[in-house]
Amino acid sequence: MSGTAKSSKREQSHHRIIEAASRAVRRHGYAGVGVAEVMKEAGLTHGGFYAHFDSRDALLVEAIEHAGAISSAVLDERIAARALQTGNALQALIELYLSDEHLAHPEQGCVVGALASEMPRQEEVVRKASAQRVDRLVRRVALALPEGADPALAGVIAGALVGNLQLARIHGDNAGGRAALADARRVLLSLFLMPK
User: Fold this and answer.
1) What's the total number of domains in the chain?
2) What pTM does this model have?
3) Which of 19, 109, 125, 157 is the most exposed place for a label (fewest CB within 10 A)?
């Protein structure tokens, strides 16, 4: 086997591990990411883990970066499409972030929305990567703000989005969770989008 083929196979394996870990961390939280389970889901043996990562924390960092990049790209694409219909990027962001779909599928959604309450208790390297994801979410909200809006609103709205999503997930993917999201959407839209 050539060096390129070995490298390609290693890269494919690495990608499968990261994909599995990025779903697992959003589905089960940081503590729920076991090396053995991630390797099994990736179709690899537990023993091969250290050929890819120095530690479990290194895996977590890559997993949240990957999950964040993927979910951000999907959210940006959906915001752009919805904003064409509504004419308002902030409305699109609020409606999509607090959607029933986001409630139902944490393993596909925002890393911050899935993990915010756990982020401060992680090792420094994981906490730092987590803080970068929070900063990116705040910047995403800032991009959706109308021209001339107070920049401090970006952090306030990001916090409201994440907090309301987490509160709805406490109820679950059911009528209670969906009602909590509907209330949050209605109030946030009335606060930030309706003419005074």
Assistant:
1) 1
2) 0.89
3) 125
